[in-house]
Structure formats: C-alpha cells, structure tokens
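Key result, reporting period 2: structure in, sequence out.
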C-alpha cells in the first residue's frame, strides 16, 4: 500500500461524460482486457477504468469513492480517478515509482492539493491504481473477502491522495482508524 507522486500514464480509455458508461466484461479468452469505464458525476466526479481480467464492480468502486470524498469534505471540484490493472502493469508502475520490482495492491498518485482548490475550477485529486489480483490473493490472509479487500485498498489509496500516511505508529493508527470508520459508514449506506 504505497503512495507515489508522479502521475501514471493514462490509456485514454476514460472519457468525461455525464451519467455512467460501462463496457462489457473482459475475460481471459478475449485476449487483452477491454477497459471498462464508469463515470458518475453527482456530486463528486469519480472515473473508474477497469483494464484487467478479474471481475470487479465499477459501480461499487464509484459509490465508495464518492462516499469517501463526501465524508471527508473533499471539494466537489476535485475529480478522483480509479484504475484497476493486472499484475504486469502494476509491477511496472511499482518498479518505476516505488523502486519495487513486484506488483503491489494499491498505488496512489496525488495530483492537485485540496488546499489549492479554486471554487468552480475543476481539478484532479489524483489516481488510485488497484490490482484486484493481488487484493484477491491477500484477502484470505487478512480474513476478508476479495471485495472487502478491494474496498479497503480503495479507501487506503484515497487517504494517501489526501496526505495521510502510516510511516509512524500515530499516523498509522489515525489512518487505519479512519479507514475502518469510512468502510463502516459505507456498509451502513449500501442498500440490502
């Protein structure tokens, strides 16, 4: 679970539109994955690009992203980008930006600072890059389902975009406590 400063290269698959757009699922038999794109513009703009082979729920990721941004009072001018990638691309990003030669579960690439937002001027909070394969592999070690692990990693990545860290015990306790709180309030808000 890392934070990196540089912005990853973008595939250009996401487009800014109103409403939600989702492309059909990619499977291992289809060859290279076809990106899924989900964009939701009310009230925070959250873009999800699913450019990998494991099944994920882009609408859930969008809802969770919006929930976190709303709960933390992030200005609506700041857009959140969430990208799901396979192990290979995640390993490349991790090597380039963190100096680690293996794939990781989540990387965060902050772009615009919350304190620099100008009312009415759109900005980009940053990109959270998730690797659902790594999340699924480690979920059992944390006594979570793959979906719960992916949810936790998304919240973790967003908190990194907002400047939270876990290098010291006090920071770790605050960040992980906030993660638990945000996941609990999200669970309470999801219709059953």
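The corresponding designed sequence is given below.
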């Amino acid at each position: 679970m890392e934070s990196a400063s540089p912005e990853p290269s973008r595939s250009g698959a996401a487009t800014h539109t109103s409403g939600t757009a989702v492309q059909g699922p990619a499977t291992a038999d289809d060859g290279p994955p076809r990106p899924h794109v989900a964009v939701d513009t009310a009230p925070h703009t959250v873009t999800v690009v699913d450019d990998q082979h494991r099944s994920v729920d882009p609408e859930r990721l969008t809802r969770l992203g919006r929930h976190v941004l709303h709960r933390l009072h992030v200005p609506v001018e700041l857009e959140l980008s969430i990208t799901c990638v396979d192990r290979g691309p995640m390993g490349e990003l991790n090597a380039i930006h963190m100096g680690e030669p293996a794939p990781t579960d989540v990387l965060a690439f902050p772009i615009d600072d919350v304190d620099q937002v100008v009312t009415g001027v759109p900005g980009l909070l940053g990109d959270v890059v998730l690797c659902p394969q790594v999340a699924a592999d480690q979920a059992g070690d944390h006594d979570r389902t793959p979906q719960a692990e992916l949810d936790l990693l998304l919240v973790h990545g967003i908190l990194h975009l907002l400047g939270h860290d876990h290098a010291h015990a006090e920071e770790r306790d605050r960040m992980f406590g906030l993660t638990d709180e945000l996941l609990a309030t999200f669970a309470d808000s999801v219709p059953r």
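Helices lie at 58-71, 87-98, 132-139, 146-161, 169-189. The chain is about 35% helix and 20% strand. This case is discussed further under Risks and Mitigation.
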